[in-house]
Amino acid sequence: MRSFLAYDGSWTRTADALHLHVNTVHYRIRRVEEITGRDLSLPPRRPPRPAHRPPGDRAGRRVTCPAR
Question: Fewest CB within a 10 Å sphere: which of 3, 30, 33, 54?
Answer without folding.
Answer: 54
